[in-house]
Write a structure and sequence with these properties.
Its main location: cytoplasm. The protein is of the alpha/beta class. It contains 2 helices and 18 strands.
Length: 269
């Protein structure tokens, strides 16, 4: 079982990595270039090429009060032939006036893959969450389009212990033709991008997201306002890198906005 945990802290108004623990194949590395930036940027590195049969990853993230964290991945997550399945569990706690931003590289389930992922995210009424997920249909160029057995990713977001968002992405290619109308059709990648922010209106996010994704060709997208502080973007496309870079542009602008707001608060105090 591989696992890692991350806990942030504050040192002279700058977010630091206060505590971390990891086992093979993981390593936690700070990649922030400007050490005075309030936003801490961490990369999760792995010595493994992907998930294998019986792999069970356990992840714990604690973003402490007044801290800002951007958590990055190193590369695409490949899920190999797993006849008995592979699993990942992620528990995230974003405290008061804290910011958490996470856009992992696309997941690519290979032929015969069985994968189960569960993400539980706890927020307060003054926590900010930027959360992305990109899934490939498989190794399309290898003739493995929807050749995996099962892919399930369940994400639950709680605000003050109240469930405000639940996304149960469940794909079983044997039970449903994902090339049919109303499914993936001719597309091979899908992306979800969730924003929960009590300090900005969803319309601000919607305007930014629409401006960025409209630059892309050969995609379909929709943006939904879920509440007074929550919205979600969904995209279908044919290139994982295209979707990843489009969402990365949005994420970078939101990260910079969060850093600037924190610097402003620091200067006012």
């Amino acid at each position: 079982m591989g696992q890692y945990s991350v806990q942030t802290g504050l040192y002279k108004d700058v977010t630091i990595l206060k505590d971390t623990f990891f086992t093979p194949p993981f390593n936690v590395v700070e990649v922030r270039e400007n050490k005075k930036d309030p936003l801490l940027e961490l990369m999760i590195m792995s010595s493994s090429p992907g998930l294998f049969n019986h792999d069970d990853y356990q992840i714990t993230i604690n973003v402490k009060k007044h801290t800002l964290l951007n958590l990055q991945t190193q590369s695409y997550q490949r899920i190999y032939n797993t006849p008995d399945g592979a699993r990942q569990t992620m528990n995230i706690d974003v405290e008061q006036d804290a910011y958490f931003s996470h856009l992992p590289h696309p997941s690519v389930p290979h032929k015969g893959a069985i994968y189960d992922c569960e993400n539980t995210i706890k927020l307060t009424d003054k926590s900010v969450l930027i959360w992305g997920e990109i899934l490939a249909c498989g190794r399309k160029l290898m003739g493995e389009s929807f050749a995996f057995k099962k892919y399930r990713s369940l994400t639950k977001v709680f605000q003050n212990d109240k469930l405000i968002y639940k996304d149960n992405l469940y794909l079983n290619p044997k039970a449903l033709d994902f090339k049919a109308m109303g499914q993936y059709e001719d597309f091979s990648y899908q992306a979800n991008f969730l924003c929960v922010d009590p300090f900005h209106t969803p319309q601000e996010y919607i305007d930014l997201m629409q401006k960025e994704v409209e630059k892309e060709e050969d995609i379909l997208f929709g943006i939904t306002k879920l509440s007074a502080e929550t919205c979600v973007l969904r995209i279908l496309g044919d290139s994982g890198e295209q979707l990843f870079q489009a969402l990365k542009r949005i994420q970078k602008q939101l990260d910079k906005q969060a850093s600037n707001l924190r610097l402003q608060k620091i200067s006012e105090n």
